[in-house]
Structure formats: C-alpha cells, structure tokens
Design goal:
Radius of gyration: 23 Å
Structural class: mainly beta
Distance between the termini: 35 Å
Oligomer: single chain
Number of helices: 0
Strand order of the largest sheet: 1-2-3-4-5-6-9-10-13-14
Order of helices and strands: EEEEEEEEEEEEEE
Largest sheet: 10 strands, antiparallel
Length: 259
C-alpha cells in the first residue's frame, strides 16, 4: 500500500506534551518512572490525519474498507488530573471514508480509544479500564510487546487496540519499576469484513496444462478460502504479565513474563 498522510494537532492545554513527539510505541505519553503525574488541570486534545491507500493488486482497486481509498481519522481525548494523584483519561476515534466504490455517503465509524481511571501514589500507581501497554521497543515488529491486540484493517503495520485491564506499578526506588498487568479476557485482532480483499487473487489460483503441444498453461481461479479462528471470550482466557525494569547510568534493561 502507498500512503499519503497529512497530520494536525489541536490542544486546549497551555503546556505542550513534548514527550509525545518521540513516542513511537503507540502508547499513552504518561510518566512511567515516577509515581507522579503532570500538574492538575483539564486538557482537551485532538489529532487529525488523512490517509490515501492504493492496493498493489488491480483486483483490489475497489475503494472499499479502511485499507483502500481516502480515509479521515480524528482522535479526540479528554484528560482530567486532580491533585497530582487521580487521573481520568478518555479518548474516542472517529473515522470517515471519503471515497467509496459506490460514491455514496458513508456513516462515520466511532470507536472508543483509551478510557481509564488511574490513581498515583508516592511509591505505586493503579489503573483500571481500556489501556495501551508498550513493553520493549523495536523498529517494526516487537516480539515482546504482546499484551494489546492490533488492528490489521489498514495493512501489516497495524496499530494497537486498547484492552480492558487492571495495572499495578510499584516504584520502590528511582532505578527500579515493577509492572503488573491483569487482563480478564483476551481480545481478538481486528481484520475487518473486507479482509479477503487484502490477499491478491494470484495466491488463490493454480495452473493447468490445457494443450501439451504446443504447451498451453491456463490459470484456474480458486475460491478465496481464508478463515481465522477467534479467541474464546471467557474468564479462562485471562492474561497476566509482569515486568521488572532497571535504570542505571548508561544502560537500561527489563525482564518480562506473560502467562
């Protein structure tokens, strides 16, 4: 896919979040090392992006789904911080397809983003709600960052989806953090109803020799038969993760475990 991206940023807060400029892990830009949050107040933020995607296969030139055509994305968030200890964060994503194959108006797609309540104390913090987590860092795919499901409707470089979880972070010293995350029910990845259109037709065809002399080979199309087994949504599908993070002059490292 080829993408043309235009981005904008709007905030009602006087203090700019410079940390978000360097945040490439698709996570909240809240402070993790210490148990203290930013100054008290209310901030309203918005991120706006226009994306154009062109399929590699001519069969997929349909302008259907978020992976094809022109797509507008808007993220609106409300951040309330009380006395540097209690934080309420709520965000929603509003997506709108501009061009479709039928050239008819499409209803906007409104989905909730991160929505959680967090309590900060001197040596620990607790949070409950739909959250994003980032364990480790990598240029493309991170094998240690497996807590959040991903949205593959726009291609292989999928973004994370918030998941309902309870998190407990302990800060015994400035050089050590112990993170614990409990997810009651594991969530499925998002592929979208038009997932089959993302696979080229050539992957689902075979060749047949129709004439040995002269040799004539004709392609025989096959049905695009692709199914993905879903994760059972039951209490037995819980996920628990724990990570120890160490900060020393010149080196940082962590040890993580996910069950």
């Amino acid at each position: 896919f080829c993408f043309l991206i235009l981005g904008g940023f709007l905030t009602a807060s006087e203090d700019e979040d410079y940390l978000s400029l360097f945040n490439e892990d698709n996570e909240s830009t809240e402070e993790e090392v210490s148990g203290e949050s930013s100054s008290s107040g209310i901030s309203l933020m918005g991120e706006h992006k226009a994306t154009w995607g062109g399929p590699l296969s001519p069969d997929n030139l349909t302008y259907q789904g978020p992976a094809h055509g022109v797509f507008l994305e808007n993220k609106l968030s409300l951040d309330i911080n009380i006395n540097n200890s209690l934080r309420l964060y709520s965000s929603y994503n509003i997506g709108q397809s501009v061009i479709t194959s039928e050239l008819v108006p499409v209803e906007p797609d409104i989905t909730p983003g991160e929505n959680y309540l967090k309590w900060n104390h001197d040596f620990f913090s607790m949070s409950l709600g739909y959250q994003l987590f980032s364990w480790g860092s990598a240029d493309l795919q991170n094998p240690t960052d497996v807590l959040n499901p991903r949205d593959y409707q726009k291609g292989l470089l999928a973004e994370k989806l918030p998941i309902f979880a309870m998190a407990l972070n302990l800060y015994p010293t400035d050089s050590f953090v112990w993170e614990n995350i409990f997810i009651p029910m594991e969530e499925d990845e998002a592929y979208g109803s038009d997932m089959l259109t993302m696979f080229p037709r050539e992957l689902f065809q075979k060749n047949m020799i129709t004439s040995p002399s002269p040799l004539v080979i004709d392609p025989v199309p096959q049905t695009r038969d692709v199914t993905i087994a879903g994760i059972p949504r039951e209490p037995g599908s819980f996920v628990f993760g724990s990570r120890l993070r160490f900060y020393f002059p010149g080196i940082d490292f962590s040890l993580s475990y996910v069950y």
